[in-house]
Model the fold of this input.
Amino acid sequence: MREALDGHRRIGSCFGLSHPPFLAVRPIGDAAFSATHLHRPTSRSARKTVRLPPQNAYFLMLYLRDADHCDLAADGASGPVNHYREGTICLVDLAEGASIQLHSELSAIAFLLPYGLIDEISTFSQFSGAKRLRCRRGEQDDTVSSIGLAILPLFEQEKARRRPVLQHIAIALCAHVLHHYGEQATGTRSTSALTVWQEKAAKDFMANHFAERIDTAAIAHALGLPTEVVEKEFLAATGKTCEAWLTQFRLTQARRHFFQYGLEPEEIASRCGFRDAAHLKEEFIRSVGSNPAESSNLWMH
Done:
């Protein structure tokens, strides 16, 4: 298994880390799943270039803290520096490798998902038709974020104790990405005229202004596109309207305010872009199916 895991173990060295915390398991068959805990402090002297070699795998990175980095082209040319929020993910196909340049501290969990693993999970799941994953950039994904928080303690545990838990986590993570980012997840991604960066820009604008009263016209203005184009193409790219995506993001922020600060509903509503506590309750019930006042545990779903 050691030889088969060489590509997994090299993830840390690609980021300039000699012996980062590392987990690996074969959750179903022959294909391995791995997670590497990455932490690079801010460097004033140099910006770290990261080059991931070509391999038959997907690279999934969960940002544990905000980070800034840019893509590097094959000729070394750098793209614009993009901001990635805590709790967001990037999902990249490594068929041709990938290169970035870090412009900030990096605290993240890197998952390597070989094609063979995706095939194995697909075979035993309801998403048997999805064999490929769509690339994502700065995607807000609360499920992957929660899985990442569950994995963190495992880095400190003995191998024998963590293996059964890690197997279940690996299967859950792969099933989730197949469901949400498999080619058949929306059936419409290829018809969207929005580039992945335009989609990210739209989501970034909503995330930056979620506490304000914004509409699709404001989002379209920020992107420099007609409102009707954004309405149609955002839906085609994500399977959600801008309004639905923004409401879900606001609910996520409301949950965080509830757990971290213990605020009253009126204060949470005010901070998270809802008209009032009644509006917050209405959207929560629509999303979860229950009144948040019935049980604080519901905020965890």
